[in-house]
Amino acid sequence: MGGDLPDVPSGKTAPVFMVGALKDTWSGNLDRIQIVKGWIDKNGDRHEKVYDAAVSDGRTIDSDGRCRTPVGNTVDEANASYLNNVGDAELRAAWTDPDFDPKLPAVYYARVLEIPTPTWQAYDSMFFGITMPEEIPLSHQERAYTSPIWYTP
Length: 153
Prior knowledge:
Blueprint: E1 3-5, E2 16-22, E3 30-40, E4 46-55, E5 90-96, E6 106-114, E7 117-118, H1 120-128, E8 139-140, E9 143-145, E10 149-151
Parallel strand pairs: 1-10
Antiparallel strand pairs: 2-5, 3-4, 3-6, 6-9, 6-10, 7-8
């Protein structure tokens, strides 16, 4: 439930975060676990960067910390259904900030993405036999977030 990291002693490395997630029994498999980092640079400017810590289906994470291969999409929007044959039921990883600067304050939180699933609008469209306007999304990826972990030098 969040917390504060102590100042890093001289000569020590960046913090290591152990993350893990299990899929909800009644929902979609997992696509990925991400670490979202925010920090303030030496000029006082705020920044944010997203890193993929774990990805499903044997995909790989590039050297920049991102997986460029999307998880599959099995959503049948017309029938408001999907198959759980992509993604994984469980993801785990140990992640170290590759851009850690012990002199700069930072905040970290984990974000977990599911595979695409139908929206409630897709279910309503199917149930009531209506056509939704084009701008209404009929599938999406649910997300879960952790509380932040703060680093203050």
